Amino acid sequence: MGSFTEMFFNLQTLIEYWPIMLRGLGWTLLLAVIIVPMGLAAGMLIATLNFLRRRWLTPFLIAYVDFFRAFPPLVLLIFIYNGAPFLGVTLSPFTAVVVALTLNSAGYYGEILRAGLASIGRGQMEAARSTGLSRLQALRFIIAPQALRNVLPELVSNTLELVKATSLASVVTLPELLRSARIVQGMAYNPTPLIAAALIYFLMLWPLVRLLSRLERRVASR
Questions:
Q1: Residue 20: partners with Cβ closer than 8 Å, 6 or more residues away
Q2: pLDDT in tens, 167-211
Q3: CA-to-CA distance for 188 and 110, rounded, in angstroms?
Q4: From the centroid of its chain, how far is CA 85?
Q5: What's the number of CA atoms in the CB half-sphere (13 Å) around residue 185?
Q6: Structure pTM?
Q7: What is the pLDDT of residues 50-76, one digit of tens each?
């Protein structure tokens, strides 16, 4: 039992290399704080443009959503990071991760929000317009708040997956939490950092999981 603890739960190793792990956690949180709002904003733009029903624009929106939902985010990240220099653009690992995950998440957020807007009956828009509101004002003040409530569990679920996807940054050498744990593992010849990283991910995302469960129960009870 002692050798098992020393191998997989070595507190001394964790204490010695904790600053590296902490910096990795900082990168992970920074990615999440930037990518989630950007993806959500881009998704809202896509859903809004879809809602406005511009015939010439709809095929492009559908193509965007379908492409980035079908394209694996890991492949997209590698493609952007390694392909950009051929276009004369050199992206840092951090920028490549932000661009790739924002493009990918915008497709998912856009489809979720589009479904939310579509769930609101047309009578709501007509009633709002009859009070003198423009189409955009009706969308902002009347339709969008109701749509967001209808798809809140899906939005939380997608956000949860997006935060987990930040671990893909390790493939382009960005020292986020997973890569930092792997670096420390190589330095200490001990898997304890990987166990610690898994526990950190769990503690960081568990509140979102509980929130998602509560929202799903609330929607089911309506």
A1: 180, 183, 184
A2: 999 999 999 999 999 999 999 888 999 999 999 999 999 998 898
A3: 44
A4: 26
A5: 16
A6: 0.91
A7: 988 788 898 999 999 999 999 999 999
136: which 2 tokens? Answer: 């955009």
**Domains of the chain as residue ranges with CATH:** 2-220 (1.10.3720.10)
Q: CA quadruple 155, 157, 158, 163: dihedral positive or negative?
A: positive
Here the tokens at position 98 are 């932000």
The token pair that represents 139 in the structure block? 């969308």
Q: What is the pLDDT of residue 138?
A: 86
**Could you tell me if 77 and 101 are in contact, meaning their C-beta atoms sit under 8 angstroms apart?**
yes
116, two tokens: 């939310």
